[in-house]
């Protein structure tokens, strides 16, 4: 049995489930995350970007409706009695929504870069073997340290298989590459993981993957990093899946991050961060919210989040400036583009923590939310000057009312403290553009909701162009609180 399949409660290779998929006539593996409140089916395959392809789906339950996302790609879905066919070019990320089964995520990737050569260290050459039960923290950490200390080495490569470990700490000049079929999974045992005695009290306790003051660090490949939240609850052991602090030149490429105990991927006080074709798979609960954000650039500069898919129990992307045991920093030059998400709370967000001096040049473009509670949010809770920011070509299919403040566009400038901390000051928003924002559902709130305290002119130069709900132009609505 392939150890990777043990990551999933159902074994799709041995027990046929409700969906079959074929790409250009060749069968694909459909994996099912059935511990999620709503089952999530995932297919991952390589496609030639220069060729037209056809994926054929067979559903083993009757269905009434199918829909394909993102709609802006203009791809045709051909429903059939027992399935559907989709023709496409390139390597898109797609979501097929089926009323009888939930969501099928199609992750088509261009051919991956397999690192080879003298600078690559194979895990097996350092005594790191595929073993679902043996914890190998020391061996993996030693290999990372060895590569960092060498002028000739640059990459630790994990071939297909399962590798269990506790928290890892990345030094400089290291690339961790996970081949397709490689699973790096957190240990089941608290004794292997940081300091469980903290019991959630310290925001700076260990994440599963950590770095502090490192430069030139990469995590690449089509494998999976699994935080094991189903065993390690988010309140006790890990703060989140990945926390890189004070780092320069950080790259995440093609990798999947799954089952985080808290926030998924958090670069904090970092400069030069690229997340390309990153997948984050966490449980989006049917009701309520769990604090498993996707990717949160915190007090960072020069960040690119490009062509990603996030399935999260809270925000998908939230740009922040926090101050947990460090001085809040500014945010400059953050670009998020071609994001596809199924999430709670906000899909594209600035805030809630806005404790830095400046948060500027933050731009979201081509954001598609299959299901969310709020699409575009600026939550100016603290003292930052939020300026020169934009949301363009953002689309939401369904707002499900799973949050107390539902809306397509939500701009908030509260003046009262929240339950977990007091208000730090009064923020200002300057030069905010919202352009080509669309909600399919005609029952969605059809106004830009602006909430601020009293008459203080804290929102300056807001431009809204081409905002529609159900195809009908929408309006601005200002609410004083």
Question: So, CATH architecture of the largest domain?
Answer: 3 Solenoid
- What's the CATH first level of the largest domain? Mainly Beta
Number of domains: 2
Q: How many helices?
A: 1
Shape: globular
The CATH topology annotation of the largest domain reads as Pectate Lyase C-like
Largest sheet: 19 strands, mixed
* Secondary structure tally: strands: 39
Which structural class matches the secondary elements?
A: mainly beta
Low-confidence stretches: 1-15
- Percent of sequence in beta strands: over 45%
Description of the molecule:
By secondary structure, the chain is mostly beta strands. It has two domains: 18-109, Sandwich (Dex49a from penicillium minioluteum complex, domain 1); 120-480, Single-stranded right-handed beta-helix, Pectin lyase-like (Pectate Lyase C-like), CATH 2.160.20.10. The chain is 3% helix and 51% strand. The protein has one helix at 137-149, and strands at 19-23, 26-28, 31-33, 40-46, 52-59, 66-69, 77-79, 83-89, 93-98, 102-109, 120-122, 131-135, 155-158, 161-165, 168-169, 174-178, 182-186, 209-212, 215-220, 224-226, 240-245, 248-253, 256-258, 263-268, 271-276, 279-281, 301-312, 317-321, 331-343, 346-354, 358-372, 374-379, 385-399, 407-413, 428-439, 447-452, 459-469, 472-473, 475-480. The longest helix is centred in the first third of the chain and has 13 residues, at 137-149. Residues 1-15 have low confidence and may be disordered.
């Amino acid at each position: 049995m392939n150890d990777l399949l043990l990551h999933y409660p159902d074994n799709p290779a041995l027990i046929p489930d409700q969906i079959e998929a074929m790409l250009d006539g060749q069968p694909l593996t459909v994996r099912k995350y059935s511990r999620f409140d709503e089952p999530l089916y995932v297919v991952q395959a390589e496609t030639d970007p220069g060729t037209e392809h056809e994926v054929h789906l067979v559903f083993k339950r009757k269905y009434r409706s199918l829909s394909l996302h993102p709609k802006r790609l203009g791809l045709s879905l051909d429903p059939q009695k027992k399935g559907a066919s989709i023709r496409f070019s390139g390597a898109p990320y797609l979501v097929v929504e089926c009323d009888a089964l939930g969501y099928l995520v199609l992750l088509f990737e261009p051919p991956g870069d397999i690192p080879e050569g003298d600078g690559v260290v194979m895990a097996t050459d350092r005594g790191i073997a595929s073993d679902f039960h043996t914890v190998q923290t020391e061996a993996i950490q030693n290999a990372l340290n060895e590569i960092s200390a060498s002028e000739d080495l640059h990459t630790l490569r994990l071939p297909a298989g399962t590798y269990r470990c506790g928290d890892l700490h990345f030094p400089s000049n290291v690339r961790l590459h996970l081949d397709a079929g490689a699973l790096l999974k957190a240990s089941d045992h608290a004794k292997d993981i940081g300091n469980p005695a903290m019991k959630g009290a310290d925001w700076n306790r260990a994440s599963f993957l950590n770095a502090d003051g490192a430069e030139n660090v990469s995590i690449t490949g089509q494998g999976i990093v699994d935080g094991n939240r189903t065993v390690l609850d988010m309140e006790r052991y890990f703060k989140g899946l990945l926390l890189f602090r004070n780092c320069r030149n950080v790259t995440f490429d093609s990798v999947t991050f799954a089952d985080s105990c808290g926030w998924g991927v958090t670069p904090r006080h970092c400069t030069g961060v690229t997340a390309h074709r990153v997948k984050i798979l966490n449980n989006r609960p049917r009701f309520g919210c769990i604090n498993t954000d996707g990717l949160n650039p915190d007090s960072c500069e020069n960040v690119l989040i490009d062509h990603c898919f996030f399935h999260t129990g809270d925000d998908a992307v939230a740009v922040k400036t926090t101050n947990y045991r460090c001085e809040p920093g500014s945010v400059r030059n953050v670009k998020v583009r071609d994001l596809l998400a199924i999430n709670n709370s906000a899909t594209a967000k600035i805030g809630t923590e806005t404790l830095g001096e400046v948060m500027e040049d933050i731009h979201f473009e081509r954001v598609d939310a299959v299901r969310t509670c709020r699409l575009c949010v600026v939550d100016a809770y603290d003292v930052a000057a939020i300026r020169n920011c934009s949301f363009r070509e953002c689309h939401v299919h369904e707002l499900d009312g799973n949050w107390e403040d539902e809306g397509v566009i939500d701009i908030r400038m509260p003046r009262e403290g929240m339950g977990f901390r007091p208000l730090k000051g009064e923020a200002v928003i300057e030069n905010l553009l919202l352009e080509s924002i669309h909600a399919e559902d005609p029952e969605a709130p059809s106004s830009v909701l602006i909430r601020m305290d009293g008459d203080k002119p804290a929102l300056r130069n807001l431009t809204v162009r081409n905002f529609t709900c159900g195809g009908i132009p929408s309006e601005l609505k200002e609410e004083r609180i």
